[in-house]
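Q: I have 196 residues here and want to know how they pack in 3D. Can you give me a structure?
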Amino acid sequence: MVENGAENQLKFVIEHLEPFLGKWLLIEYKHASEIVGANRIIFTNIRKKTHAAKLSRFGTVKSESFNVLFPLQELVILDPRADEPLKSQDLTGKKAIVIGGILGDHPPRGRTYQLITSRFPGVTARNLGKLQFPIDGAVYVAKLVNEGIPLEKIPIKRGLTIRVNKWHSIYLPYAYPLRDGNPLISKELIEHLLSE
């Protein structure tokens, strides 16, 4: 458990790395904000005023990259390619955990490493296991670890099938943490996928 209520101060920084802010990404960002609270989310690297306007309802918005806002020694970067899994003690004394604002690829292309971790040698980088999580799922798992729950005790479902009708379904090849036995996914995202 993080000492002195420090878990309440930890910020969740989402470094926006896509050239656009599509509906899917916006839904994941919004859901991440609902999971930890808008007061604990910072969206960084937001260059377009229209994007900033949309995201300002869900957290603090900064045009700068995370490394301008925080000393690197106060950060933990979540990267599936990091050597070590995240433990609650990794977050002791840290101000923020950085999550790449990247839509997943299947198979993963290692873009968090390419776009973030490799630029800052020596920064603390940790993984959530070797599976690829959606942004909101990564935020949820990191929040639980910060609250003292060991990573290996957090139940995960690998892949999710959403039935469209009796002939069609959509398969999402990502890792989903289970909350109350159900995969953590925004109802709004399911509706969006079904409407597409």
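Q: Anything worth noting?
A: The longest strand covers residues 169-179. The mean pLDDT is 90.
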